[in-house]
Specification:
flat; mainly alpha
């Protein structure tokens, strides 16, 4: 998710409108490490564990666990 661009914000707004209270809170931000890790054949946690991308995916995993497992 790129908050500084108009299109992603508009798509998010539409998703929120069509799926109220059904979206996860976590937004996966665009970062270089996420684009590079598939080429390295690694997950973001193996490639750059302390990156913003790894933080975002960890947060998403917590969202999924909280919303669907609890």
């Amino acid at each position: 998710f790129q908050n500084r661009r108009r299109l992603p914000k508009e798509v998010l707004r539409k998703l929120q409108m069509y799926f109220p209270k059904k979206l996860m809170k976590t937004r996966i931000r665009e970062v270089a490490a996420l684009a590079e890790c598939p080429t390295a054949g690694k997950t973001i946690f193996d490639y750059h564990r302390n990156s913003i991308g790894a933080d975002d995916y960890y947060s998403l995993a917590k969202d999924v666990h909280y919303n669907y497992v609890m």
